[in-house]
Amino acid sequence: MAAPILQAQIDINAPVNRVWELVSDLSRMPQWSPQCRAMKPLGQLRAGTRTVNLNRRGPMFWPTTCRITEFVPEKKLAFKVNENNTVWSYELEPTEAGTRLIETRNAENGTSAVSNFLVSKFMGGVPSFEDELIEGMNASLQRIKDAAER
């Protein structure tokens, strides 16, 4: 069963190339995301590149791995989290004042049974966890905006 698409967006008063520079530097993901503590690409960024990651929520830490599924400079970066089948993406659209940045979490085939069990058992259930993810997406986008506009 498909999980709901989670999405947030923000308008940034900076050119697309500046926003892309921030979004595509995956080593900076911990600066943006409240849950990410590390994201390390294994090789040059392009479709197919893998990453190893460390996430944290309160006292809980967990590792994940991803594969970049789309890499279109100054337009779109997407990666699939292998452990739960979710695809996270950042899309950039030019606007009159700069850039619209859209962050999306999609799980068109649903999340994995293990992920659902762990979220239900240890993270307050799927609905509250998804609300928290949207809050985190909005926080991430605001942090990227602040950095791009500096």
UniProtKB/TrEMBL annotation:
SUPFAM superfamilies reported in the protein's UniProt record: Bet v1-like
Membrane-crossing segments per the record: none
Source superkingdom: Bacteria
The protein's name: Polyketide cyclase
